Amino acid sequence: MNSRWSPHLSPGTRRWLLLRAGIAGGSAIVYGLASQLGWVPEVSAQPSSSLKLSSPSGPTCPRKIVVIGAGLSGLVVAYELEQRGYEVTVLEASDRVGGRNLTARRGSVIDELGSPQRCAFDDKPHLYFNCGPARIPGTHQRVLQYCRAFRIPLETFINDNPNAYVQSEGFNNGEPMRRRQYLADTKGFLAELAFKGLGQSRLEEPLSEEDHHRLKAFVQQYGDLDANMRYRGTDRAGFIRGGVVQPGVRNHPSAGIRELINTPYGYFPMHFSETESQFPAMMQPVGGMDRIIDAFVARLKRPVRTGTVVRGIQVAADGVQIQMVNKQGSAQLQADICFSCMPGHLVNGLEHNFPETYRKLLGAMRGVKLSKVGLQMGQRFWENDNIYGGISWSDRDLLQIWYPSQGTHGEKGILLGGYVFDHHANERVANMSVTKRIEHALDMGEAIHPGRYRRHFEVGLSVAWHRYNHLLGCGSGFPEDPKEGSFGVEAAEEKFQLRRPILGRYYMIGDQVSFLHGWQEGAIGTAHEALSHFQNHQVKSCA
């Protein structure tokens, strides 16, 4: 193991114990051990700050606002400012509103360059596919506050389901395994190893006899070990048969920890639902994520000017001038303030007078690659496998299958048949025709649900966001290594600089300059920050 990740610690210390537990079993076992030993302090959640804006009052107050882009952050700015009496014009290059908040249902258009599609799902309320954002974590209070204020009905989104599957050609002879069995076996074998390690310590800071007793009890319960502290299988992995009117017959445990760590599932997917934005409970709007967009649009006083492509932005001390083109031809628009959620990697292609440092930052941004596949199934066969919502994982390019949380026990259902967020995998998938992408998704699904996936498939669609017209990426990112094509979230200073307004007149917003890249909460957060800056530096000074 790389020494960078394995600092020298004396065996038997508390740090050593937590480090070993973290390497082996992830954050869940670390937190459990620390809590059992009384090492975790209580913390209180910090409430989110409320947005405070006032109406323009003084004669020199800016009143004319232009918003470039009708993505969620742009709509938030437009709504909040219109509510306070500002004259707001929203310009959108596409013929639709919402940016990457796109719900496909019968008749919807997927405007992917080279692969335009029209959704052919059956016309039923639960037969829709969220091509972009599809879930709302309980921690994303800005999104949820708007849903509450606009009375948007919500329902539970099941993100994590141990009854779903994990499948890899190099694991379990290529056969799918229930996630619950994988998790239970991994905990069992790791708990057995952890107990063996406790007896070999030379203590820098000795564990007391009481600590040892409590650790033994915790490890035994954590891994469901037998009286001899050996893992022999567990009811948590599920039964082969029985368990109701007949005794339950347990699944046989895996061959051992070596087999379990021979699949990529143990390195990221096993722990993904423990992150800040992935753990239960999660929500979704009833009828599709675009219900949020619809609610904003319904409350705007002036309609969004769709089909209007911005060609140039000139920022001056007294305002902003926008050059644009639409079906009527070229035109100019003069405004006091501009808020823009246009993808940063596209902005540098405009005619603008931005400062050189700002220009260079925009030039470093790249469209992030992300693709999805949606499949209509004529039968909800997964429910016969006791799967209601959640995600199955594969080590193939398409990575995931999502089972719908809506339409339970209905005749049909829409699966997310592939969710690709690896850069190189997206290169391969996006270069396929839509037909081949769907075929690729069916291959993966057939390996997890043999004999039923293809048989019940009816119609599908796919979107590769870095080929989507007027967006050309799932937001923008700063590559850590252009050769590798990976996009990190560590470009803190770059994002802070891009969020500083140019001459107090031009604000860049959107999840692309947040630290919740790809989430609606990030988009709203930057919109609120820009509005607060506008209030404190423009409105107050003119009142």
Explain the overall architecture.
This protein has 543 residues and is α+β, with helices and mostly antiparallel strands. It has 3 domains: 9-41 and 171-231 and 256-262, de novo design (two linked rop proteins) (Up-down Bundle); 64-93 and 291-364 and 488-542, FAD/NAD(P)-binding domain (3-Layer(bba) Sandwich); 103-163 and 369-467, Polyamine Oxidase, Chain A, domain 2. 30% of the residues lie in helices and 21% in strands. The strands form 9 sheets. It has a 4-stranded parallel beta sheet, covered by helices on one side. The protein has a 4-stranded mixed beta sheet with strand order 10-9-21-22. It has a 4-stranded mixed beta sheet with strand order 16-15-14-18, with no helix packed on it. α1 (14-25) runs antiparallel to α2, α1 (14-25) runs antiparallel to α5 (179-198) and α2 runs antiparallel to α6 (209-223). The longest helix is centred in the last third of the chain and has 23 residues, at 520-542. The N and C termini lie far apart (62 Å). The model is unreliable at 1-10, 22-32 and 39-49 (pLDDT under 50).
